[in-house]
Amino acid sequence: MFNFLTLKEERFIHKKFDFRILSNEEGFESPYLFNKYFNNISYNIFVQNVTELLEFIILSEEINYLKTFFGKKKINNVHTISKLIKRELHSDFIDNIIICKRIEFLYDYICKKKMPINYIEYIDKLLISLYKTRTFLVKKIH
């Protein structure tokens, strides 16, 4: 079973999206290139791809992106995101932030591509759920 999961994750690394390293000036642009995976697809495939994107392993590039562009953000006036990452604290919270960023950037992508409204509504509902989870996780940080 472990080999299957490893192969599954490797498949997603190459299939999900390409991740580009951004300069400081590009910091709030999407580092994700979704063209190969979210272009001209049916709604069913779209939902399947989003689900896989949620399950996709957290890349070191994503952690570095978070530290670089959001690292100074304080959580509950206690820790910065950079300190949480460096000390390996509250990894579930950090993972949630990265997953939220993936979906937020996907939302921007589908809006730019003028995809059908049901795609946008699906992402809206998903983000609401992810934000509720993040709110729950933030309360655990002291």
Molecular structure report:
The protein has about 140 residues and is mainly α. The chain has one domain (about 1-140). The chain has six helices and four strands; from the N terminus they run H-E-E-H-H-E-E-H-H-H. The strands form two sheets. It has a two-stranded antiparallel sheet. A hairpin with a 3-residue loop joins strand 3 (about 75) and strand 4 (about 80). The chain is globular and about 45 Å long. The chain starts with a helix and ends with a helix. The model is unreliable at about 1-5 (pLDDT under 50).
Task: For the structure shown, list the relevant keywords.
142 residues, 4 strands, mainly alpha, disordered N terminus, two-stranded antiparallel ribbon, two-stranded antiparallel sheet, single chain, globular, 6 helices
Give a nutshell description of this structure.
The protein has helices spanning 2-15, 43-55, 60-70, 81-86, 91-112, 117-138; strands at residues 18-19, 32-33, 74-75, 79-80. The chain is mainly alpha-helical and 142 residues long.
* Oligomeric state of the chains present here: single chain
Strand order of the largest sheet: 1-2
H/I helix tally? 6
> Helix content range of the residues, please?
55-70%
Percent range for β-strand residues: 5-15%
Poorly predicted runs of 5 or more residues: 1-7
Mean pLDDT: 84
Supply Rg.
16 Å
Count all strands and give the number. Answer: 4
Coarse structural class? mainly alpha
List the domain count as a whole number.
Answer: 1
Question: Rough shape?
Answer: globular
Distance between the termini: 37 Å
Order of helices and strands: HEEHHEEHHH
What's the main sheet like? 2 strands, antiparallel
